[in-house]
From TrEMBL:
It comes from the Bacteria. Keywords: Membrane, Transferase, Transmembrane, Transmembrane helix. It comes from Conexibacter stalactiti. The chain crosses the membrane at residues 35-53, 121-138, 158-175, 181-198. This is CDP-alcohol phosphatidyltransferase family protein. The keyword rRNA-binding does not apply.
Length: 218
């Protein structure tokens, strides 16, 4: 025999509706507010600049937290743009540009730290990671300008954020055990960004070669 009261079913059915109504209310308030996708993008930039300053001061755990929060803003601006309908072509351009700047700022601070430690190999790895992170983005942009979708590859922006976040949170003296993962994270970034760049180059070459073979002869 069921001991469930009639009110139990109503409550369980009502909870999802209530959450949905609350989510819809919050969504509408955000859309009606003066908040813009560009403001979220600039907030992400501020978070990453703070992260770079904290790396410079060797507060690695706090730097990791700031980097994560800044990177979250980088993902929210695009979603908010689509949700609110407030997006503009310039906003999309600004978002992509700030993503590259933010990643470079934090990695430059990391390179500075390694230089103070006399770790030339890690400094070189940071330079490679910065260069090929830019190339990962550039190859996709250039391919899409040619009409070829190019999202292949391991080291997407999200993966790079995760790797660097782990490196900062578990850097020497960060407070999370006796790990030292900042240098290994940089080495992984360098290898994966190089690999992904060539993945995208070969992908575009295959796509273009396939299109040439399938084109009707005149």
């Amino acid at each position: 025999m069921s001991t469930e009261s009639p009110g139990d079913g109503r409550r369980r059915g009502g909870e999802p509706r209530a959450r949905g109504e609350l989510s819809e209310t919050v969504r509408n308030k955000l859309i009606d507010s003066r908040l813009t996708p560009n403001a979220i993008s600039l907030t992400g930039l501020v978070g990453n600049v703070i992260a770079a300053v904290l790396v410079w001061q060797e507060y690695f755990f706090l730097a990791g937290v700031a980097f994560i929060l800044g990177s979250v803003m980088d993902t929210l601006d695009g979603r908010y743009s689509r949700m609110s309908g407030k997006g503009t072509p310039f906003g999309a351009f600004l978002d992509s540009t700030l993503d590259r700047i933010e990643e470079g700022i934090v990695l430059t601070a990391v390179a500075w730290y390694f230089s103070t430690q006399g770790d030339d190999l890690a400094v070189a790895a940071v330079v490679v990671a910065v260069l090929f992170s830019l190339m990962v983005s550039y190859t996709r942009a250039r391919a899409e300008a040619l009409g070829i979708e190019c999202k292949v590859g391991i080291a997407s922006r999200a993966i790079r954020v995760v790797i660097l976040s782990v490196g900062l949170l578990f850097a020497k003296g960060a407070g999370l055990g006796d790990f030292e993962l900042l240098a290994p994270a940089v080495y992984v970034l360098a290898v994966l960004t190089v690999f992904t760049t060539f993945q995208r180059i070969f992908h575009v070459r295959r796509q273009m070669a396939g299109a040439a073979r399938s084109a009707p002869s005149v």
